[in-house]
Amino acid sequence: MRTLTPEKRARLSAGALGLAAVLTLGGLAALPATEAHAATDTGVANGDTIANLWEWNWNSIASECTNVLDPAGYGYVQVAPPAESLKQTSYFWWDVYQPYSYNLNSRFGTAAQFASMVTTCHNAGIKVIVDAVINHTAAQTGTGYNGTTITNKYDTPDWDAANYHTSAECNDSDLIIDDYSNLSEVQNCELLGLPDLKTESSTVRAGLAAYLNKMTALGVDGYRVDAAKHIPETDMAAIEALLNNTTSGSAPFITQEIYPGTTPVASDYYPTGDVLDFVYANKIAAQFNGSISNLETFGSTWGFATEGYSTTFVTNHDTDRNGYTLAMQSGDTTTLANIYQLARGYGQPSVYASWNWTASDQAPPNSSGFVTDTNCSSGWTCLDRNTAVKGMVEWHNAVGSSSAYTNFQAKSSSVIGFSRGTAGFIAMNNSSSSASYTFATNLADGTYCNVITDCANTITVSSGSATITVPAKGAVAFHTGTYTSPSSTATATATATATATATATATATATATSGSTVTATFNEYASTDTGTNVYVVGSIAALGSWSTGSAIQLSSTGYPVWTQAVSLPASTSFEYKYIKKDSSGNVTWESNANRAATTGTSALTLNSSWNLASASATDLTFNETATTVSGTNVYVVGSVASLGSWDTDDAILLSSASYPVWSRLVIVPNSSSFEYKYIKKDANGNVTWESGSNRSYSTGTSTGYTTSDTWK
Ligand code: ARE
Fold first, then answer.
1. Strands (E), 44-148
2. Is the pLDDT of residue 107 over 80?
3. Measured in angstroms, how far is the CA atom of residue 355 from the centroid of ligand 1?
4. What span, in angstroms and rounded, lies between the C-alpha atoms of 427 and 434?
5. Nearest-angstrom CA–CA distance, 382 and 335
6. pLDDT in tens, 596-618
7. pTM confidence score
């Protein structure tokens, strides 16, 4: 087990295509007999979106994976705690957060039904994330869902008193956490009086890992770690070190519940996985309860978890009940916020779907406590099935994670539009009456269908703009995959529009043949300060026509190489340049001359380095085989600026996606020789250098250089 990098998403993404399905759900609310998707499905593979089907029973989840989640393009399903739990006579929902044993016969079904659900979901291309309650066991005695009787809360089938924290570790006389600003208390005392497992003990670590490994062996792909802030991060790392790989061969996906408070904080847990982004959920609620016109900057500067670690949500089972976020039952506003979440594309999105409640403690629909089948027409809110939400899962997948959030237009406090690169456009209306505006779309002229209505209506883009009537509390969204035909007005419209900047001289020669595009991947090495982003801007409309306001933002996922795939007209010559924008919007242009390129009829990659003429740069992919312990990462550092000039603070983090091979594409000068070396940094930032003399490399005038090194 090692640190999960942002690349894990590529590693974990499911492969099945979201093909059309005819839906006949025995016992469930009937969906339309045939889905209009048959005609419009763009063949987008299942993406990263999580459907959080909280407290659905296993049979209903299995059906949903096959009949709804896969056709819609979801990638993951998250399920409620599956272990045997407390069973009160009132059957409160929170009984399942009090484990009695790690037997998988639970209120959601039998162990066999659980295993079958995992298999069925996998067969549909959906990965399964389990809510893992591993910080504690049950506070309340009684008889559980599999018949286990507990009379002493410190004596369960799995544990005895020696496995729990006592007054020897907990500094609070009643053993219960009262002071959430005291780290020791938060981690050594009892959350809500729930017996606190002694996770510093190797016996406890092994027992918890055995429980998780049992589920991993059944095919489970990942875990939402409940109450993770109450488990010291070092203990999390030690437990994860004991986890087996999933059946698809990767480390389990981990997202940790670090409820906001004084200490510890979410970022403390990045070494052991992702975190649930409570700040994101709280702020999205504030926007959709007020004005949405400020969403242009909605991103990391708002205090969210770092993008590569953020599991975003609009609401969850706790915050639905405590007002910290929008509520599931807030109807259209919550649906619209989910649509925005999928469109914004920050972190890994999740859509919460569950049962309706009127009293906070209320049990889910059940029979003697056992949860009954989901009925989306009665008692349940199946937001994952909402036509607009499903359309946006498709849109989210189609625009991809690297298309910049750009081209933001606020028409009023409640009507906005924005693009994701040149791949998709969405207009949203948070008011109670419909609104009509003309938006610049960033998309090629033509006719597109609206994914929000499952393609029941179309939008025409002409001269890059579209006049759109956005329904009350609704949205209109389309992407290049829903392009159906060039509009009658679609002609070559790009003309030279030199901007005020001295260095950018536009010489546009774009003559796009209607709809014919190729993907150009821009890779730019550029070091930046926090808050500053890198954009590409150029002479053609798809690159903003030299307008810095319309420049395409590059993704920093591979920092310090900034990357973006952009759809460009085929067989077109253009000029371009990179710019940096700081958090105040100040623009810095590269100092070299305009770069030039010509598209053909297939994809191309453009590699360059800040302030370095394109002709002087090439790409070098470092591959280093190195084994590491949890929390430790491998970097490369070297003698040239783009390798950090031997400064370990500027060393380049390599990706562990193909562990134990650590890799990263870096832009370096061509026709030059330089030295480099690999280093390891542990979770505390301690640096270990490879032994021996410096390594050296010489580039020529070609591209696609690689190394194949092994830690020495
Ligand atoms: C129930 C009863 C309690 C009783 C307890 C033991 O409600 O009165 O003392 O049983 O008998 C859920 C329910 C709880 C329930 C529990 C066990 O929400 O009501 O307790 O199950 O059945 C903190 C944690 C965070 C936690 C929240 C609720 O840090 O991890 O509290 N969230 C998870 C789950 C919950 C679940 C548990 C953990 C327990 O998502 O659904 O509890 O498994 C500040 C602090 C936060 C604190 C927050 C509480 O912001 O900084 O750390 O969150 O207050 O609002």
1. 50-53, 76-79, 127-132, 142-143
2. yes
3. 19
4. 12
5. 11
6. 899 988 888 888 887 777 777 88
7. 0.69
Provide the percentage of residues in the chain whose pLDDT is more than 70. Answer: 89
What domains does the chain contain, in order, with CATH numbers?
9-147+198-375 (3.20.20.80), 405-485 (2.60.40.1180), 491-611 (2.60.40.10), 616-710 (2.60.40.10)
Is 476 in contact with 427 (CB distance < 8 Å)?
Answer: yes
Catalytic residue among 185, 226, 454, 619: 226
What pLDDT score does 546 carry?
83
Mean per-residue pLDDT of the chain: 87
Ligand 1 neighbour 97 (Cβ under 6 A): yes
Residue 78 Cα to ligand 1 midpoint, Å, equals 19
Element spanning 458, H or E: strand 458-461
Instruction: Note if 529 is an active site residue.
Output: no
3-class secondary-structure state, position 675:
strand
Residue 512 has pLDDT above 60, yes or no: no
Express each pLDDT in 354-374 by its tens digit: 999 999 999 999 999 999 999
Distance 167 CA to ligand 1 centre (A): 21
Among residues 407, 593, 613, the alpha carbon closest in space to that of 501 is found at 593
What was the pLDDT predicted at 102? 98
Residues 6+ apart with CB under 8 A from 57: 108, 109, 113, 370, 371, 372, 373, 374
Residue 649 annotated in active site: no
Q: Is the beta carbon of 259 within 6 A of some atom in ligand 1?
A: yes
Q: Please give the distance of CA 246 from its chain centroid, rounded to a whole number.
A: 19
Side-chain-facing half-sphere of 465: CA atoms under 13 Å: 7
Residue 122 has pLDDT above 80, yes or no: yes
